[in-house]
Design brief:
The protein has 336 residues and is α/β, with parallel strands linked by helices. The protein is built from 12 helices and 12 strands. The relative contact order is 0.13. Keywords: Oxidoreductase.
Amino acid sequence: MLSTTVFVSGANGFIAQHIVKQLISKNYKVLGSVRAATKGEELAANLNSPNFSYVVVPDIGVAGAFDDALKSHPEVIIFLHTASPFRYDIQDIEKELLNPAVNGTKNALKSVQEYAPQVTNVVVTSSFAAIGWSNKYFDPTKVSTEEDWNPQTWQDALANPDDGYLGSKKFAEQAAWEFVKIEQPNFRLTTVNPPVAFGPQAFPIKNKKELNTSAEVINGLLKLQQGYDIPEVRHLFVDVRDVAAAHISAFENPDAAGKRLFVSSGPWSAQGIVNIFHKNFPQLSYIPIGEPWKDTLYRSSTFKFDNSKTVEILKVDLRPLEVSIVDAVQQILEAK
């Protein structure tokens, strides 16, 4: 029996590497796109599998970015679009965040429609940012579900990079659903909408200076010294390994077609993460204890949500916060 070939755009991303790793463990063949050959070679070395190959797509925002890759690989049956810009060191929010996210998604779907009619399922990595009523729209009484859209406008998104990121996720996902509605392509679309993804990197850390954003949240707390205040940060989380598994369920499970999968395990706070440090890692006694009881207060004041529809489709038990944090911290402490 021939293995199904899955295309994963942005294959060297934090979530994407876990997706690729899980796909290969399930005997899929994976064709990943990366921005530079060095990234592809590094991922190939980590995977060490004949079932992985890569193509270079330097800029997903360019029209036809995926055309050549799909023309050259008619064996691709599933397309997972995880690539999206996410950086804060930007000068022009519209030019560097919003347009690349929207155009990158449209370009991927157009290429699949035109040059890969054999593709049955497309899965787009979106975000809780496209769902949650954040920033100036935050409402502590609002219960977010798979049906909700962040009410932010394009103009709101131009205010600062944080709002720009929220907007990039919302408008890119909306562009995907609009494309399917108008074009009626052969493939079925599913989106995966995670909040902050914690947990270990897919492979051992070689350079602590190159951690992804959510791992840097943990690493930043590991650097706290006595006398420092613990940040009053809180949000929702999900384990990165569960996000990856949701991407695979998104095309394996027929019930997921045409759905938004809102994968969230629950709330977290910086104080709660520090509490986990002190419970599990006695060598981290240098980190301030803070006020452990405030974790409950912080978690109760963040986003409320109901993702029961997603949980029913996926039929999985999502990992709890302590597992995600312990696994991530152990990996960071083992890194040079």
